[in-house]
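**User:**
If convenient, please work through this fold.
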Amino acid sequence: MAKIDQPKILLIRSAGFPQDWVDEMRATFPGVEFMVADDNAEAIHAAVPGAHVLVGCPRPIFTPDLLAKAKNLVWVHGTGAGVEQFIFPEFVNSPILFTNGRIIQGPEVADHALALILALTRNVSRMLKGQPRSEMPRAIELRKKTCLVYGLGGIGLLVAERVKAFGMSVIGIANDLPPMVSLVDEFYGPEEFLAQLPRAQVVVCAAPNTVCTRQVIDAAHFAAMPEDSIFVNVSRGAIVDTEALTDAVRAGKFRGVGLDVTDPEPLPQEHPLWSFPHVLITPHMAGPSDHNRRRSFELVRTNIARFLRGENLLNVVNKDLGY
């Protein structure tokens, strides 16, 4: 990336830039002009024409209209891991570099996946929904069971780490070759996903939402899962065929289902999935934690330093692939 003399970087305050952190950025990079905007369309549209870098723009505001005003933009950073709402033709076809917050959101989202798994294996979800204990199945252990993790990125590998500590065997499914770490016992490509499902008592979806993964988990996949299995999704709701999942729940397929993401989102209150005692739905809350904003800040600061030196940035998104 070519260096820019006196670059202007636009930070969106709601993305994790309180005033003291903005001051820290300014002290660290005195040759950079930092602009700050609130997370509303009017403020961002007004500020973006002069910016070389845009950090933390809310996905609904990042539109072709905004991009058309950003004549000087060379780099956009999305602080979240999901990027599907950024992937529109005008941006994909532009030379603007795109980075995101993958990897750094892994710890808290993996923790949330484990919380859902434990709530389902220990009948906590049933208790919270008022099911009499006499009607609950006997609680189960994770030890000596198998967990299939679909997607082995910054979230999936940490899910594997956590369930491995509970004595589970781990099967990983990913499009890219992952690190050959001991916490994943077996690795397969997406073409083996369906074939490996019958072996897993717990299935965790941690894959990005791309054109290749949209509604990839469908009726055939639910049918392939063992009876009394557990399904958890902490990545994106659109990866799952919600109608097929609902049909499988109605048919008594699962011991439990844990969803932090749904399609549509939020799931309408009249949707039948809310009514089942063994279905636990949380409102897309896995991402925030007491440390994730600071990790995001440190990533941005590291990438700004690399940007100023003309070096390759961390977490570059392939806009054609969508991750």
